[in-house]
Design a protein that fits this description.
mainly alpha; 13 helices; globular; T3SS_OrgA/MxiK
């Protein structure tokens, strides 16, 4: 019970406020303009509508890097897709390492432009698949919620088979990059 309380305190928005991070296709564009009481009602409706499982005593806590950057996972996905799409990765089919990531961040994609224009969707879907696979060890409650951060077109492009999980340091480095560049990357995703 104590663990469940800690989970709900530390990751309250993840479990109780899906409207704060769902893609507008599932949430509408009005959520952030609603008063707090109506946001709570809307969140309850989303939880029921999409059958989002509640946290329970066996639900693991996400690592801080994922819980802190939860609402930024679509931007993380764009950057992961960008790293995975580099020529060297295409040719060798290897997972990226820290050096690949450093080369990528010398000339990164503008994640916000890509998300707002919904193109190239294959790149976003590739990154989204990696993000969802990184959540697999923590359970389906997280995966199901994260899936709704991406529009239907992206969801349909995400491969159904299990993806090879990225090394944690790659995901962490991307999250830290986003944090350092908050002025350049607006995280309010429409």
């Amino acid at each position: 019970m104590q663990r469940l309380n800690k989970l709900l305190i530390q990751q309250q928005d993840i479990f109780l406020a899906p409207g704060s991070y769902f893609h507008s296709e599932f949430n509408g564009d009005f959520y952030h303009q609603l008063p707090v009481l109506l946001q709570e009602q809307h969140n309850h409706k989303l939880i029921e509508q999409y059958a989002l499982p509640s946290a329970n005593p066996r639900t693991p806590l996400l690592p801080n890097v994922l819980s802190i950057h939860w609402k930024q996972l679509p931007i993380v996905a764009v950057h992961i897709g960008g790293v995975m799409q580099t020529e060297s990765q295409q040719q060798s089919r290897k997972l990226p390492n820290s050096e690949t990531l450093r080369r990528y961040f010398r000339r990164p994609l503008n994640a916000q432009d890509i998300l707002n224009n919904n193109a190239p969707t294959a790149l976003i879907a590739l990154g989204a698949a990696k993000v969802l696979s990184s959540l697999a060890p923590f359970g389906s409650a997280y995966i199901l919620r994260a899936k709704y951060m991406f529009n239907r077109e992206i969801q349909q492009m995400i491969p159904a088979h299990r993806e090879t999980m990225l090394p944690w340091n790659i995901i962490e480095e991307i999250c830290h990059y986003i944090n350092r560049n908050k002025n350049n990357e607006n995280t309010a995703i429409s």
